[in-house]
Structures are given as C-alpha cells and as structure tokens.
Amino acid sequence: MERRGAGPGRGVAVVGILGLVLVSASAAGASPDDWWFGRSRVMIRGAAASETPSGNYGLGIYARNNGAPDDAWGQVRFGEDAESGHGDAGEVRCLTRDAHGLMQVSGRLFASGGRNDAGRDFAVTIDTQSTPQRFSGVRLGTPGTIAPCSGGTADLHPVTRGGFESSPPDGR
Prior knowledge:
Elements: H1 10-25, E1 42-52, E2 55-65, E3 73-80, E4 86-97, E5 102-113, E6 121-127, E7 134-136, E8 139-141, E9 156-158, E10 161-166
Antiparallel strand pairs: 1-2, 1-10, 2-3, 3-4, 4-5, 5-6, 6-7, 6-8, 7-9
C-alpha cells in the first residue's frame, strides 16, 4: 500500500473534522461543572475556523485544569494554509483565564502534518469574550523555551465559523 504525504490544506481539513466531532459530541444543556465528570477551575472546549485574506486558520481544543494552571490536561489541534499548509496536534499542559475571558494555553506537540513540529512546545491565546471570538497564531519553540501558560503570537484571527465554550471568568 502506497502512503501519500500531506497536501497543503490537510491540516485545516483535520481541524475541520475535529470541529465537527467536538460540536456533535458536546453535551446538550450541560453546565461547565459537568464537563469531564466534575467541577474545574478553568475549562475550554470547541473548534473554530478563521477565513481571512491572509489565509485560513483552524483551532480545536478540549482542556481543563482542576487547580493550578500547570495542572491542566487536554488536547489541542490547529492548522493553517497561509504558510505552506500544515496541521499539528498537542497535549495541553497549562491553561489560564483572566477576568476578561482571555485564555492562555501551552503544552507540547505530539503529532505534526506538513512540517516537522512534533516534540516542540506551543502556546496560543484564545479570546472567548470578544464578538466575534478570536484566537492567536500559534507560537512554537524548542522544548523548554516557552514559559508555561504564555500566549501565542500577537496576530489574532477572528472566528468566522464555529466557536469556543469556556468556564465563567471567576472560575465557577
């Protein structure tokens, strides 16, 4: 059987499929206290796409922490076609939220398509309270070079499809 490489839009397609799965799997009417079988301090879930003149971006996340920000766990998927289309998947290791709904997520990538990013650290920022919601570009670094719960790049992409649900600003 011949194995073919990833094409330019494959990462975005993977994020789109993830978004479909996350949206269909969400518990209808469940409160944030019910997510993952218990109360958490900070939670975020969802998938979103941003279609802009500079490119198409996608981000899917399912993460929580039950105490300290660096006690977080979950997964993130992202992709873009703006710069040689790619998609990556990672494990969330730190998650914070400020009083304005700005969430900082960081961790380590375990899979990469279109580039060789597996094993690198990542950080992303998600603005859940803006209208439309926004998410940053993903900042990548060699292991140990990105501080826990630091944010993504300065460019914020407006959500044009999908969105994120998150815990209330006060953590209740």
